[in-house]
Each structure stands twice: as structure tokens, then as C-alpha cells.
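Quick one:
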Amino acid sequence: METGLLLPDLDDEVAAPFWEACSRSELVVQMCAACGKSRMPPRPMCPHCRSVVATWAPTSGTGTIWSYVVPHPPLLPAYAELAPYNAIVVALDEDPTIRFVGNLVTSANGAINEIDPATIRIGEKVRVVFTTIDDVTLPRWVRAG
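Output:
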């Protein structure tokens, strides 16, 4: 089913391991095999030591809302129909410098516009859930506890 939503390229060789992990309901981050620093989004070269050798490490999938926005129309047509909706930035518990962008939902398959944006709080604890749109499994976030 074609949604018209902007979805990642699963064939991108640098990011493919991330999307493969998401398809297994695992949230991973890229790590430099030389200096051990984590990085997100995935890149072909470490910004700290310039090594081109990377590994992937599992995360707890928990974090806090670091920031958020509420987009309103005019937007791309597929998103305008959903607006207003939230887009949150989550800082991972194990490394707050690693941040993911996603949506705060009530369940893995919840609509991205189902949560009242006025109830979202910076610092709120969240955990990852996964949903599949077309052939892409995306990480999303639900309130923890």
C-alpha cells in the first residue's frame, strides 16, 4: 500500500543495519569500532576519529523527551491530512547525546495525531515501540509507566 509518507531508503548501505534491526523490533545505534563513540544518524565515517569501521549496539529503547514540535498545514499532502501532530526528539537514557526523532503515540499502531500536544512535557520518560508502514518498520514512542 502506498501511503505518500516520506519513508527512508532501506537500501542505503550505511543505514540498512538500523532498519533491519527495527524490523526485528530492536533499537540500535551505530558505534565506531575504533574509538567506541556512538552516533546517530548513521554515517560512513566517525566524526570523532574518522574511522570508517562501525558496529551496531542494542539500546534499552528508553529515554526522555528532549524537544518536540507540532506541525500545522501547509505540509506535504500526506501529512497535512494528519495535522496537527507531534514530532518528538528523544534523548536515550544510556547516552543523552544520542537522539531519535519520532512521534509520541499511545500504542505501536496509534495515529500520530492521537495525543493532545498540550499534554507533552520536556523530560517525560518514553520507551520505543515499532510499527510497519508499507515495508518500513519505524520506531515510535509511548509514555513509559
